[in-house]
Amino acid sequence: MFRRFVGLAGLAVAFVIAGCASRQPPLANDAYVWQHQWTPALARSISDSGQELRAWRVLAAEMDGRGQWRTFSPAWPVLAASGKPVIAVVRLEGALQQWDETVLLERTRALLSQWRLQGIRFAGIEIDHDCATSRLPAYTHFLASLRPLLAPGERLSITALPTWLESPGLDALLAQADETVLQVHAVQSPRAGLFQPERARAWLREFARHTGKPWRVALPAYGTRVSWDDQGRVVAIESERPTLVDSTESRELFAEPAAMQRFVAGLEADVPHGLAGIVWFRLPTEGDERAWSMASWHAVLRRTPLTSSITVNTVPSGDPSRLDVQIVNSGTSDMALPALVRIDSACEAADGINGYALQRTPQGLYLQRTRVGLLRAGRQLAIGWLRCSRSPGTVRIDR
């Protein structure tokens, strides 16, 4: 018990000590390396991001809904040079209703043997199986059979879905794993969006009550385009690579870096019990147009402030009488494309391109966004053109 009266200096010291004791270190960052092709751009991302990341979770194999098995070959020297622990991820399609456990275990055994020989810091295996809750008992049996295949020091990790939280089989499943990664993005209908912060916080609090082991949360660092047919059925999800489909409706979904940075700050201010870190899906590269820019990625990993700066201007084109209208993002945060750009001019002709359309209103001319999208940090986008015989006036983002 403190005495009723203390000196001001002593009180100040007490406050400082209490503040230091309550301050939590940043949550550790892992990243999923989900690319099928190991390009030079991917190698650069691993090299450039290694300082901020604890471990790599690398797609190693997958079994599709028909039971077809496919393996992937990473660039082993790139992973070895990073010096980081590497976890091999085996993805089992959630729609897979049955499997031959003996065959699956044998394939996993061969995979483990191969990865142990590659000169990397091999840390274990993660099973990514987004199954229905009715399949949890079979999944639990598989994990129990898989554990004896691991060598000393290798850990068994699994991903978990929020839909499992109400299942009586969840605790038995979690007991088989050394570590669980709770996925809180892209787990609802696409119409609900890619990520909902309040819903995610509720899932995290609930999950913390189910496990006494360390666990992590998977957060998004990407965008996706979802298309529906005229019956409202999802016909395509374009995320890692484009898919050409005919559809009557499509929508761009994305996780803005600034929003995710705010979510992480809230997590670190009040860490759920047992939460050991974040696993980001997926590692961005310069060639991945649906992932964050490297500037935003590194700012979020480092917990450094993101800067927002998006402007619009006109630039000369190859035609002396035509000007191109460009949006420029000179900040470090990927930002949503502006909905309206006002054209204050009396040009003879104008039009929009790249997701913008010209609108003529009593208030003037506008370039109106026709689809949602992001402009990555350090990038520019042509959204229209003007043909003017005299001064073109100005263009500006309509707030």
How would you sum up this structure, described in words?
By secondary structure, the chain is of the alpha/beta class. It has 2 domains: 25-302, TIM Barrel (Alpha-Beta Barrel), CATH 3.20.20; 310-397, Deoxyuridine 5'-Triphosphate Nucleotidohydrolase, Chain A (Distorted Sandwich), CATH 2.70.40. It contains 9 helices and 22 strands. The strands form 5 sheets. Strands 1-2-4-5-6-7-8-12 form an 8-stranded parallel beta barrel. Strand 5 (121-129), helix 5 and strand 6 form a beta-alpha-beta unit. The longest helix has 16 residues, at 101-116. The chain starts with 7 loop residues before the first helix and ends with a strand. Residues 1-22 and 241-247 have low confidence and may be disordered.
Alpha carbon gap, first and last residue: 57 Å
Number of H/I helices? 9
Roughly what fraction of the amino acids lie in strands? 25-35%
CATH superfamily of the largest domain: Glycosidases
* Rg estimate, integer Å: 25 Å
CATH class designation of the largest domain: Alpha Beta
Task: Give a short account of the largest sheet.
Answer: 8 strands, parallel, barrel
Structural class call reads alpha/beta
What helical percentage do the residues reach? 10-25%
In one word, what is the shape? elongated
CATH topology of the largest domain: TIM Barrel
Quaternary assembly: single chain
Q: At CATH's second level, what is the architecture of the largest domain?
A: Alpha-Beta Barrel
Number of domains: 2
Low-confidence stretches: 1-22, 241-247
How is the largest sheet built, in terms of strand order? 1-2-4-5-6-7-8-12
**Overall residue-averaged pLDDT value:** 88
Count of DSSP strands: 22
Protein name: DUF3142 domain-containing protein
InterPro entries: DUF3142
Signal peptide: 1-23
Keywords: Signal
